[in-house]
Amino acid sequence: MDTARALVVDDDAQVRHTLARILQAQGMATVEAANGRQAIRHLEDGGGIPLVVSDIYMPEMDGIALLKEVHRRWPDVAVIMLTGVAEVTTAVECLQLGALDYLSKPVLVDEVRARVDNALEKRRLVLENRFLQHNYKERLESSIRELDQRNKEMFVGQIQMAVRMLEKKDIYTRGHSDRVSRYAAKTGVLLGFTGDMLDQIRLGGELHDIGKIGTRDTILQKPGPLTEAEFEEIKKHVTEGEEILEPLRRHHPLVLQIVRHHHERMDGSGFPDGLAGEAIPIVARLMAVVDAFDAMTTSRAYRASREPDDAIAELGRFSGVQFDPDVVAAFQKAFPDASRL
Question: Cα–chain-centroid distance for residue 318?
Fold first, then answer.
């Protein structure tokens, strides 16, 4: 055990030997040093020295300098300082610098034993308290992380259920979110997305239209083209979706970028913010392409679906105007045989 060793530091050999014998009688092994520099070398050699008993006035490196160095480099080592009878001010200074106790010369056997036991007990309590605090902090942080993860999973699950309900209201978009999520993930890989970013793209594809949960059914299910007023109302789904998903912002910021900006256009004529070019988040530029492709290849009451090859050609025609050319190229590469989609 590390409590079995003590370092005695004093330039007076007789005092050193006396203290060493007292400590040995308490069951401790001892090492001795005549000054602070020798003491530092013993500590640097390791071996687990939990206790230093040091004089103050010594050549080469005095006890105050030694105390400061020990406190800086080996803060777990208990230090007891030796002082003269009239050196109360110095003793107080030592305590302020990190010493756990002090002894007055000439030393008395019972006092040495009592002060040593007291210092080692203080050290034990400090280490135990630090261990408990560290473990408590770790357990608390772990519990918070687990709770946060459970809450996040519950929230996402509820939102995904809301998406399914939304798609049940509009038979023409049934499965749309799943398809968009799948297209976006596969295209995202070719754009270099990996790991968490790719996971957020998948989730963003699933949730990109969640704001439509507040859109009137008469608009969602209208069997013909929307009026200007109706279109203005449905445009609100991007900002309303962002509000709904606000709890995800901390850990899934890309999802919120997708939801808010997937109807922006490269020429700046999109909504809600009229962003243009690279000012549009790349994840939203990706979602704009795959969302448009799925919309074109899905039948509506007022129009038939387009063939996949025709839809991909349409993406190419609007590349650089409505869609990011790099994303269009990646989508075409990800799905070279569009007829099988």
Answer: 40
**Residue 222 corresponds to which amino acid?**
K
Q: What's residue 338's pLDDT?
A: 67
- Structure token digits, residue 330: 């990646």
pLDDT score of 250: 85
Angle among Cα 268, 271, 275 to the nearest 5 degrees reads: 35
Say yes or no to pLDDT of 1 above 60. no
CA distance 74 to 69: 8
> Which range is least confidently modeled, 138-152, 172-186, 231-245?
138-152
pTM, to two decimals: 0.59
Q: How is residue 339 written in tokens?
A: 């007829």
Please give the pLDDT value at position 52: 94
50-66 per-residue burial string, b: 16 or more CB within 10 A, e: under 16 = bbbbbbbebeebbbbeb
From 105, 122, 152, 212, the catalytic residue? 212
Nearest alpha carbon to residue 46 among 74, 18, 11? 74
* Residue written as token pair 């200074």: 93
Active site residue 236: no
Output the six-digit token pair for 200: 């957020």
pLDDT band at 170 (very low <50, low <70, confident <90, very high): low
- Which domains are present in the chain? 2-127 (3.40.50.2300), 170-340 (1.10.3210.10)
Asked if 68 contacts 36 with a C-beta cutoff of 8 angstroms, the reply is: no
Q: What is the structure's pLDDT at 336? A: 87
High-pLDDT (> 90) share of the chain, %? 55
Q: What is the mean pLDDT of the chain?
A: 88
Side-chain half-sphere of 270: how many Cα atoms within 13 Å? 21
